[in-house]
Amino acid sequence: MAFTIRINGAQHSVDVDGDTPLLWVLRDVLGMTGTKFGCGMALCGACTVQIDGAATRSCITSVESIGKSAITTIEAIGKTPAGAKIQKAWLDHEVVQCGYCQSGQIMSASALLASNPHPTDSDIDNAMSGNICRCGTYVRIREAIKLAAGPINGKAGDR
Length: 159
Ligand code: FES
Ligand code: FES
What we know:
Layout: E1 2-7, E2 10-15, H1 22-29, E3 48-51, E4 54-57, E5 70-72, H2 81-92, H3 102-115, H4 121-128, H5 138-149
Helix pairs in contact: 2-3, 2-5, 3-4, 3-5
The structure holds FE2/S2 (inorganic) cluster (FES) (2 copies).
One FE2/S2 (inorganic) cluster (FES) binds next to loops.
């Protein structure tokens, strides 16, 4: 069956079964391999994309459930204000180790920053808890999110 889905501002027509996970469509049908397959069961966060700005596990999101919603992937997150800040902070803090989890981490972090410009430590922990990093980059991730958020009222806050 044919579905038309909007990804990174462009319409894509795909001919797949309706229950096909979005992750499969991105990677195998459209060749957008920045979004990673980890567990396939919503347990690791490697496959995180944004749907209407919300961090979403693409491995358990069927293509038929998307409708007219706007999908953003790692390939375009740097064009959003929050995504650009997060990517710069990731580089400044040298967050990445092996890198496998990192597109999902960046998608969750940028969704957090877009909805909550000055997250507390617990806000960060809550937003990022579903993104697993086998290399243990969690401390650098938290610091990079704080760097991207910037100081509150020009001062470093207790976040
Ligand atoms: S691949 Fe989707 S959460 Fe692990
Ligand atoms: S950087 Fe290696 S799994 Fe996160």
